[in-house]
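Running co-folding for pyridoxal-5'-phosphate.
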Amino acid sequence: MNWITDSRQVMVPEQSIFFAIRGERHDGHQFIDELYEKGVRQFVVESAAITPERRAAWAAYCDATFHEVPNSLQALQEQAVAHRRQFRIPVIGITGSNGKTIVKEWLTQLLSPTFGVVRSPKSYNSQVGVPLSVRQLNETHTLGIFEAGISKPHEMQVLEPIIRPTIGIFTNIGTAHDEGFRSRKQKVAEKLRLFTRSEVLVYRQDYPEIDEEVNLLLKAVNPSIRLVRWHMGDGPATEFSASVVQHGLHLQHPTHGAWSLQLPFADPASVENLIHCVVTLIIMGITDPADLQARLNRLRPVSMRLELKEGINQCVLIDDSYNNDVAGLQLALSFLQQQVNRDRKVVILSDVLQSGQKEAELYAHIGRLISEQHLNRFIGIGPELSRNTHYFPAGSQFYASTEAFLAEESPDRYRDSVVLVKGARAFSFERIVQRLQRKFHGTVLEINMDALTHNLNYYRRKAGPETKVMVMVKAFAYGSGSAEVAQLLQFQRVDYLAVAYADEGVTLRQNGIELPVMVMNPSPETFATLLEYRLEPEIYSFRILREWIGFLEARPQETSSVHIKIDTGMHRLGFRPDELSEAGALLAAQPQIRVASVFSHLAGADEARFNAFSREQYQQFIAGTETLANVLGYCPIRHLLNSAGIVRFPEFKLDMVRLGIGLYGVEATQQEQQLLRTVGTLKTVISQIKTVPAGETVGYSRSGELAHKARIGTLALGYADGFDRRLGKGVGSVLVNGTPCPTIGNVCMDMAMVDLTGVSANEGDEVIVFGEGAPISAMARAIGTIPYEILTGVSERVKRVFYKE
Ligand SMILES: *Cc1c(COP(=O)(O)O)cnc(C)c1O
């Protein structure tokens, strides 16, 4: 039986049991009917969630079984504990603030030659993710590697018996999730609960908080645990001491021995993660330096990114060419099914290497997964798939190798489809991606979809379960790409979308978006379009109201939902409060029209100096909504707050909030910026580098005068791409290999020049214009504007690349 907690991820319905979990915003019980329709027959439900109506409805599902429990999440966790108990194999449990997933992936790569490894898929490390990860354990495995992450106290004691690690790794401690804990100390202490029954714990002694709590707390509850500590540089002679010069690692232990190894990666975070791995291998008995080195040499960077790229012939590519395992395949297939903007779906898949499963069993399972997807085409690449074609739908095609595929397949066969390209590293599927990808010039805006989800959830938590969320996807979703962002929002089940103009709404509909959409600037020329695409106009004046009524009266069979805007002080669009009883009377007389919502907008939500004004706007708004509701005889949804308002005036959140810039990673009040994640990274490349003598000038109007001989880099980015001309002449800078380099001379239409003197850089190197380490807000400040303008200014000719971590 597969355990399912997300109704959107059912793969083989008849073999699935659904745990209906009630979360902060979602109630799994809502999806039982839908799942029954799909063929699921086993459900775990909570007594408290079974209303009489539900009981009656479910009674009709005679062939389904409902297991009634007090708490479904707890039931899932208990099942996982029982499952774990059946296996007496070594299990590595990993926690810490950063690096958990990388250490897990690298240990898997390093240990796979020796063990049949099962690990958490991606970063499944939560209260739900850990049980699902451990569920994968079966007889073929000889080692488990699972990660655990927590965000509040008492969570780890639940995860401990599920993972029951024999070997523990505590990667490090940082600030992530600090808000859930009283202190850093408490956070460390909570995380250490993962190791209360472990035999060994590996950690880095240079973190005094970890070392202290291990000795104080962990030793008290688990006195027999063996501590394997390592530190950088000199330190206690009883431990592993490490020294690193560039790629060379020298590791030494008074009794275990000494090793000199070449590390494949040399940045500090990778080095720390690698030493955790090497120390773990040594204590597991893999001590031969040549063997260790051989394993390290095969290590690959962990890029679990799954990228959405524009393909040739109107295709969309899902590039997942880094690895291939069954759990990852399920996630990728579910992501494929989320792509509702193309009707045709194609999968190109390689053999699954090192699954630990018997070949026939493995491919029977994968064949079932693939058959469930109702694909238009399936292409299998590799000798194993080619031997097991009978498990796959008729019409599937098979190739022995990537070369054979590239030689025989014509790219013209791919049109108007979503194509998932998923392959194990050894198959080099990046060559397939290159073939099918649309070529573009070197500037891209990368959008991190996991960061978007993080930010959405951040504001949802603030809004609370009772308040709906409308997301503003106007202006190409603040420059991020409206169709893809809207798809993600639909998948995450937001309540409403809003755009500025009808044609933006049409784009959403044409890309498979079914959510209700408000259009803020309707005009009579677009009325027919609004009706045709079920878009809901904002009505802000008597003129537009009368026009809309007149339009509908000529189409008596049609109905429409509208949104009434009240002007409470912004003085942009909207009815004055004293106009509302008349407007309400006009609306009430129109049975064709339903007022879906009523709203207003704060003029200074982000600034404390306008607090009194904001409160006054709120009062006016409440009074206005009451007037309107009285005349209408019903209460439309009320909403007032934008992103800044959600942070600063939670008491005004009413029935719905309107999330904008915060979703895209900019916290407009700057109070909680560190709790959001960066969504967009604008990248370009260096087209040419030249050394220019002192006294020369760079660029138009000879404005960039050189006082010294300088190395000048020309970037493939200009004001036509959205790199504002005001950023020229040293006002702005870009990150080149981590170093900020100022512009020199005027920004041109398609190019800009930067001063690379003293910076190591080559032609073709990647340059970060904004993103992690180069905040949009700093760029905005430099030229006296706001982040909104920078974001929406990235021109549409710059390709958007979407990825998941
Ligand atoms: C754009 C917009 C928002 C969102 O504002 P942010 O500051 O980006 O959160 C909210 N309401 C209305 C009416 C808007 O036009």
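Result summary
The chain has 26 helices and 37 strands.
The longest strand covers residues 680-692.
Job closed.
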